[in-house]
User: Fold these one by one.
Assistant:
Number 1:
Amino acid sequence: MKLVLYGAEPYCINNRVRKLIQEIDDMNVSRYQGLSREAVAATSRYPIMADKQAVIVEAEKLTGDDTKMLESLDIPEFTLFIVVVSGSVETRTNAFKSMMKKKEVVEYGKVAEPELKKLITKLVTAKNSHIEEPVIDYFIKYIGYEIDENVSLYTVNIAIKQLCYSAKEITEEDVRALIMPSVQVQIWELSNFLLDLNGPALYSHVTKLFDEKENGIGMLSLLLRSFRLAYKASLLKGRSDHEISKILGVKPFQFKAAMKFTPQQISEILTVLQQGVNSIKAGQPEKNTVIFTLNEALLVLGGAA
């Protein structure tokens, strides 16, 4: 049996691997870094004093050639061959589609909101604490689970433990006091201050981010990503929030503030932000460049610099 596991949720992937190998003795579990010849050759070795063995490969990415090779492999019945991919997967090849059809590839994306809420409630209850649904909603948005690819269920689990150790009745104030918001969430807040034309809050937030040692190129690059999404949403004006969410694959709160501006304005913002990134790369001071760039962006949108 061969199986490729990939996606944005490593917690679910690792749980699946644990369940698959739980009845296989450790001496018959081999692990390899990268899809090497040695790893493939290991699938043909007989298990030691057992009927089954597992060969687990951890790969950073899966190319079209990798998938073609995997699809052609004839894995012995006594071997469970698992490839865990932490990065990108080429999904457009015939070989990948063939493996999908045979259920040899499984993607583990972010957990849907209803399931995530149930999990958070279960984790909190297990620690003899309590959390109301509005606080769960706030926590999910604050920690950035839905918008930050670096935030997984591992992050959620650790954060919930921190909250439960400190409070029996968890509140929004506890979340703000004990949990660090994801960088992506802080950048989303920054873009909202810009879209709301709130200059004082914008500059205050920039100063806070620099105090927390965020770098200028990183901030502007994340803002670029946020405004590219805003631009796509602005092109869909006239459709319902639900329709736009479905087309873009994001929650309405991620684009709603941008809908009062034209695609042309947001396109100009993208140009200004990219110029800011280029200036820092050319050696201009980071903080001054970011502030100047956001000042220009405010002027584009009609706000007071």
Number 2:
Amino acid sequence: MGYADEYLKDTELTEESILRDLEILAVYYGDMELEGQVLPAREEFPMPTLVAGLEPDDRDRPRIVSHSFLPLDTETAEFTKYLQFYSELPCPVEELDRATLLEAICRLNNRLPLGTCVLADPNPAFGQPAKAAVRYVQGFPLEGAVDQGVFTEDLFLFDLSCDLVTTVLDGLNDGLSLDEAFAQIGR
């Protein structure tokens, strides 16, 4: 029994179909001159995942996005497979005033073109502090490959969302007020 079998038992997805779709997405990344790597299901991460590098942010920090398919039961997702876009951002959040941070996230979520800004809990086992992240889920027909044009447009808007969040949070970390940090992204 594979690591993903338990998660996929009540779904229309199979580990084989997920791996095939993720390999196709890795090709789409290659077409954009970005690197993507498919990671098979394993004990630590029981679902196959695609990890890809985005362009570094404006402070030259590396950025990574991961993709996985949500293992929704057949009753919930009979005709659709749901692809998750997820990126933890390189800007620190632990030193920010909590109320200011939460207000910033709320305001950002009203401005992002795609996705939602969330706080990822710290992971002491891996020495990781709390981080801001952007998450988005897109539905695609269960049968057939993920459409390259739709995926590429979604990735462009997801990347823009990540940039907006990073710009605001970096501004707060640099000592700007909330209004000053938001002025950096316009609108």
Number 3:
Amino acid sequence: MRGNLLIFNIFFLIWVIFFDQAGLMAEPIFTITPPVESSGFMTVTDALGRRLTLVPRDQTPPAGLLPSQIIFTPVRRTAGLSGNYDLGIMKALGVLDTLVGVVDSDDDSVSREILTALPPEAEKPVFLGHWDAPDYEKVKTLKPDLILGGTLRGLDIFEAMECPAVFTYSHEANGLEDRLRFIEFLAVLYDRRPKAKSIALNIRRVLAELKASLPAGPGPKVLYGDFWADKPMVHPANHWTAQILSAVGGRLVFPEVTGSRDFSVSLEEFYLRGQEADIFLPTLSVIYGFTTKQELLLAHPLLNRFKSMKPGGRVYMTLQKMYVETGEIAALARDLAYIVNPDLHPGHRLTYLKFMP
């Protein structure tokens, strides 16, 4: 399963490099361009740098565009091919009822939990297979207004189906502003832009409030990472969750690591810096099923060097709920602020993280 994801990432990176060298990805991804006089329609740019034109349902699309380049808004029928990542944001925007088809992800229980938020009267989405090999014939029979996500091998198929597809996977880590831009990017497809702006306003207000309460002096050191098939990986400092951790007072022990979604470091460096961290935040424990420090130690005995792994040490696992509610950024920020400075937030109950005894 993880091998499939790795292969996809490699092919995606090759594709991005090709497009970039060809000059086809000169503009930033997930952009929203206001209507211009020449067309009168708004355009958006997806993760591959492809531009699509948004046409209100009561209007005629401009001439010269292929059907796969036009998205009629608001979108009413969505084939979700990207797994739980985008579904969580759709849940926050209140547009899950547009889903007519879904795929499973690396943890399909996450997607199932997200779909419990569907209104009772909503059409039950059709299962379309795994995210890296969906049943394209099923997708076609659903007659979606939009295909959300998908892999590169489906690009020609989507164009032949004359259905617009928005690719949402970005190899680079998304910072907080990138994350908010992506939420607004999705919102504009469903006429939910005010909701996206409300989410952005709320996280900025909450972060300002949390920053104002920080004590003087350096905060605790945080190791934000885990093992992927016994290989140490750290969350890049430019990822939105890492940026929030820093904003609420945490000091990342790998602040120089930026770029891709997860970054491999040497075992020596991981253990050397990790042993001095006050807080250990393993990101994959929910996938591996680890719920205690002892279970972590059985899998990785050298973690016994870590200050955070000693009795009374601070280790927190990410809960599945964090991946279910990917649009609830402000609530996650409060959780992160609590684990960094619990004394500043008495009575706070963790929602997306859990202390590992």
Number 4:
Amino acid sequence: MSDFEASAARNDFIAAIMERIAPDDAVVELACGSSVRVARAMASMGHRGSMTFVDWRRDALEEHRRALGRAPRFQWVWADALDGRPFEGAWLVIHATLPRLTGIHGELVKPRTPSECARVMDTLRHSGARGAFILALGIERDVVRTGLRALGLDAAERDAVALMGDPPGEVLGRYFAVEFEPTDE
């Protein structure tokens, strides 16, 4: 998949998110990296709520901050996306990669099995977040679907399609939208 196709799928993903949230809702982008495409696309589609960008790579966060510019509604957090940080009342946005798990010896590994995905989502559903929007590309879509089902989480699903490209309308992945039940923890 080209960068162009991935960008088109991301914009379609953001449009799907904006259909489900209020313009003032708080959003947390997990594993944001240095790309500001999600923040800019959401702003262009009317989002004006607070946005927090979380990544474990300090250099990526600094590049993200420089590219996006400072604004009172933006906050950058240098942390592991799964460190137990509370995301009280926010919607989580995860695009094209699940947050990485810290494995043996601190090695970062991308969840590649449904049980690893379930572990990630179980951590996130107990974070106080309202829910999560996940863009899963390629084989990751089956991993995400099976991991969510293993936890008994019902997710709305829809194809992620290329808005342009050759051929336009090609299915590139899958969107998942899941709302978390409030927990007593």
